[in-house]
Design brief:
With 485 residues, the protein is an alpha/beta fold. 36% of the residues lie in helices and 25% in strands. The chain has an eight-stranded mixed β-sheet. Strand 4 and strand 5 form a beta hairpin. The longest helix has 17 residues. The protein starts with a helix and ends with a strand.
Length: 485
């Protein structure tokens, strides 16, 4: 492979001069065309980019994937870098090149290079080794990843390198190792890293943890090939592993502790099977060992919905093979007793005394989750150790509000609700004792005298108040309503 570093550096400078960033393109398109593009509809964006400026030409060429007039931009470096071709007075894209916004939404993170998007209605399906660019899943993972500085990162199944680009500013300084089973993905990831000004990323070919046996990392991130396809199906390496069922995610979760440093994190997106007669929490919870674990289910689809989703993803709806492939997916799920497929995220942290939480969260949560995920895991461990007799004070979480529900003018509310306005935005119905604690716990006073004061004010037995607190407070700590300072 020829050395593309110098032309890619010149392309990066041209992109920056033109303002080819997410913020620049967003301002160029406006809300209507930008919203349509988010739905993969390009006509409004084509109308918004007809002016011929360098930013408009680059947006049309590399994001909308349409030819531009050769007079609109100097294509020599684009051609030399292998990103475009020029002939007949036109410049045509060879690859999809998209800017990345930082996870905070307040700056430019870099660029990712991927294969040209295959859009619905194009009459084609992706190649087996197709490399996808940034999307909803990669964005979700980037927002999940813990914000603490790290020295040694593994981006497992890097694809076009999205996660590594997001993470390179978080190293202190450190090293990123990016792996993939697809050699083409590693080639395009290397281009992404050069365009993003990243030096020294180690690129290794191989599946799961094979390329890094015997090494340890502070952080492992993975947007893995989690799609549960019919047995042995590995048509598209970006989404299907060829392993049966949800085995790829199970094996990654089980093996992660072997290559994590003490306190190190592994964070991934995953799909898992709901099998008739077996609670999904029990199945997926059995994958974990040696780590704090937070397993969150964000959605569930039935087998038909799931097959339709991934057949649309590969643009196979409307093709002659559609019905046969749809039927094969349903037959596979029926044989396995699959009643549904869960979508979610898994966060692991290597620990001596692991705390495990498996739950379903359907509500919108504050983003990025990575800004507070460490506190979520700490809450699980603190909840398991908590008792009112330990002498520790408690602090009410920031952003907590209390709601009282009852008829107008009633002396006492029928129901008291504590609600989080930030973080995971949970709500919990509580009793008088918990509501009273929420009003006074600031982390400065031990819990015991506060409980005694509540007992005196309410006329309740002090022993009963403490017993009640021992019962309800661990769950409220685990859910993030109270914190142990």
């Amino acid at each position: 492979m020829r050395d593309l570093r110098e032309p890619l550096r010149r392309v990066r400078a041209a992109f920056e001069d033109a303002g080819y960033t997410v913020g620049g393109v967003r301002g160029l398109l406006g809300p209507v065309a930008g919203g349509a593009l988010a739905r993969d509809e390009i006509v409004p964006a084509l109308r918004a980019t007809r002016g011929g400026s360098p930013l408009e030409a680059l947006t049309r060429l590399f994001w909308l994937q349409v030819p531009v007039d050769a007079a609109a931009l100097d294509a020599r470096d684009l051609v030399a870098a292998g990103l475009a071709e020029s002939s007949g007075g036109e410049v045509r894209p060879l690859l999809h090149v998209e800017p990345l916004e930082s996870v905070s939404g307040e700056g430019h993170a870099g660029y990712v290079v991927a294969d040209l998007k295959v859009r619905p209605g194009s009459g084609t399906v992706p190649a087996d080794d197709h490399v996808v660019g940034t999307g909803g899943a990669s964005g979700n993972l980037a927002r999940l990843v813990v914000h603490k500085p790290v020295d040694n990162v593994l981006d497992l199944g890097t694809g076009c390198g999205v996660q590594a680009v997001h993470l390179h500013d978080r190293l202190r300084p450190g090293r990123i190792t990016a792996t993939d089973v697809n050699p083409r993905a590693l080639e395009l990831a290397a281009m992404s890293f050069e365009l993003s000004g990243m030096d020294g990323v180690e690129l290794l070919e191989g599946s799961l943890l094979e390329p890094v046996r015997g090494r340890r990392f502070d952080l492992i991130v993975s947007n893995p090939p989690f799609v549960v396809a019919p047995s042995g199906d590995r048509r598209f390496t970006y989404r299907e592993s060829g392993m049966p069922g949800d085995d790829f995610c199970r094996r990654l979760v089980g093996a992660a502790p072997q290559i994590l440093e003490d306190g190190g994190y592994c964070q991934l997106l995953a799909n898992w099977l709901h099998v008739d007669g077996v609670p999904w929490e029990e199945r997926v919870g059995g994958w974990t060992q040696g780590c704090d674990a937070w397993i969150v289910q964000r959605d569930v689809q039935d087998p038909a919905e799931y097959a339709e989703l991934w057949l649309r993803d590969s643009c196979e709806a409307g093709t002659p093979e559609y019905r046969a492939r749809y039927d094969a997916w349903l037959e596979h799920f029926e044989r396995q007793g699959v009643t549904g497929i869960g979508f979610g995220w898994i966060t692991l942290r290597r620990a001596e005394r692991p705390a495990v939480r498996i739950e379903e969260l359907r509500q919108a949560v504050e983003q990025p989750v990575g800004a507070y995920v460490e506190g979520v895991l700490d809450g699980f461990g603190n909840a398991e150790k908590f008792s009112t007799g330990c002498g520790s004070p408690l602090r009410v979480a920031d952003g907590l509000v209390q709601e009282q529900v009852g008829p107008p003018g009633a002396e006492d509310p029928e129901r008291i609700v504590l609600r989080q306005t930030a973080g995971l935005r949970r709500a919990a119905g509580v009793g008088t004792v918990e509501a009273a604690l929420a009003g006074v716990c600031d982390g400065s006073v031990p819990l015991a005298p506060l409980l005694d004061a509540i007992a005196q004010l309410t006329g309740m037995d002090a022993g009963q108040v403490r017993a009640h607190a021992d019962t309800v407070l661990p769950e409220l700590i685990a859910d993030g309503f109270f914190e142990v300072p």
